[in-house]
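Problem: given the chain below (407 residues), write out its structure.
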Amino acid sequence: MPNYLTLVKEKEEEELKELDKRMQQDADLLYLKKYTMTDADKVKVPNIINITLNKPAVFAATVISVLGNTGQQTIVESSDKGVDTHEIEDFQEAAFNGANARLLKIPGQSLLNPFADEQLCFRGRTARRVLFRLEDGILIPDITPWDGRYVRYEASSQGLVWAAYSTTRSKARIQDEWGITVKGKEGKVLDVWDKTHNEIWIDEKKFIEQEHDWGFPPVVIQVVSLGYGSSLLDKNRNEHEGESIFFLIRDLVPELNRLASILQTLNLLAVKAPMKQTRKGSGVPSEYDDATGLARITAMDVGEDIRPIDYGDAKKAAEMLYGIIEKALQEGSITSIDLGNLQFPLSAVALVELGEGRDQVLMPRLQAKALLNKATADMFTKQVIQIGGTIELGENGHKKKFSTRKL
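Solution.
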């Protein structure tokens, strides 16, 4: 039997290192990490008014809002006319509703579709652990969302070989879920599933090993088909696979912040400009406030002078580049018309083109979510069929009985 702790470490160190850096960069954009200007050698530039614009957060909130307003329709098709597809559709909807009702009991836990929307937007991938099982004769509709950044797995032409979820959890959560006490305030948990059994590792020590009868890892994984890592099979393909919504603007946002910082710094310099002074004698410069203060008089000898340092057209050049970057940002994200702040009218052709640009952002996420929900439904249907008999599903007050024979 493979040592899954070793396999996970190898993936993290060799395959997923650059991908994890990319995901951290996207998280910094989403959370508007404070921008600090650096030079070409990554050294902090002093005396700069650093500006962090809200562009990526607005973009993200708009996309999530649009995805959240999309509806989902469950459709089951079969070539066998004797199959009651409506019964299966009702079963799947009841299963998803039951799983969401279970998640609602956990404070701060997102429901399945909202969690998937955010994951597919910001991670470019997500996963779910699906464990429909009987406990004391009661069916537990357990679908647990997994953050795609911390999912490690191996797949073959036959499907998923194994999947693991590597997270850090509080001491109380570990004690409540597995009855295990850790020394510190938190512990690193590795939850591994393969085709025959489950392992729980805590702080790199295996505590639980239990078998299951499903014949497949009870995990579904979906990656957004954008980024070309799945088709351009280069050595560093992982970091280019399953791109986030920041795919086309990831490197532009820091440059926009740089320009905003330059412009604001130049504005301050215009108000309180550095000066150069021509002096005779000792050459000691005047006090700045004495020489430039409002309604102040500065006495100077013949040949002496005080003038602001000329920065040339730096401000004009920055403003021109600002326009170029802003256009590139709109081409790679959501346009002003989508945000509702357009300041001028557009032609019908332009509106269609802008709408197509928005679809390029949204459609890969919608397609990935549809495939994720289909794979989830396929998996819990297989699990329920193995349970057999008649099962009850749905939210409290809206539960319905289903015969697994009809599935």
